[in-house]
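Late entry, pyridoxine-5'-phosphate complex.
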Amino acid sequence: MKKAILLGVNIDHSTTLRQARYRNYSRTCGQMVEPDPVAVALAAEQAGADGITVHLREDRRHIQDRDVIRLRETIQTRLNLEMAATPEMVNFALAVKPDSVCLVPERREEVSTEGGLDAASRIEELRDITAKFTAAGIITSLFLDPDQKQIDAAQAIAAPVIEFHTGSYANAYYDTVARSREFRRLCRATEAAANVGITSNAGHGINYVNIAEVVDIPHLHELNIGHSILCRAVLFGIGEAVREMKRRIRAGLTTPPRP
Ligand code: PXP
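Prediction complete; structure with ligand written out below:
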């Protein structure tokens, strides 16, 4: 029987929603700030998530430093911190001690991480960072495109884990030829990683449709999925949310529910 693939739930976009309303909120005013990413993470864990992933971006557009600290203190599974390989982020991660970090490229203009890290052009620097994390008991994963050059670099860096970028595959999904090419590229990459003892994770653009095929990629340890799960939560939660508000209007209740 094939080994079960773990699910890391990326909750960044729950805080995109919070920041849309409460960006300038001061914690001292006692206002209810929602949604609380800790509540979101705990609900995800109760539903079976094997880990919680957050990306602390340089511009703090969604997840804030305090969110990561609170998640570290509260979640029961594993905390995976996606971050740029910068001195500021490395120091933050060493202080907070997530279970794992995933080093990603970061450009301010992008809406979400668009391509893999070019590890091949930063071997020395990434080897030093990985060594620091390994010494601190933090597992380092590199977010890479499924290319042999990048896998060779991960080996040179001594990274124990690669998260393969599934964005090109997901974008090609409705083009049969391109999709098959991208799928085979991912399969070759995870085989190559396994051959040199590197664990393969995957993420970006995985959804409720392409998951049926993604699970056939060999040697996968964990998938990190965010956007499609948050979208589904909105879709399936909207009915109950509206019913609850209608009930409260009818009942004339004014006390807000605890988040
Ligand atoms: N893995 C990494 C490294 C990411 O940067 C992201 C977000 O772009 C994801 C996984 C999750 O991607 P998605 O939100 O498309 O599921």
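The chain has ten helices and eight strands. Will revisit in the morning.
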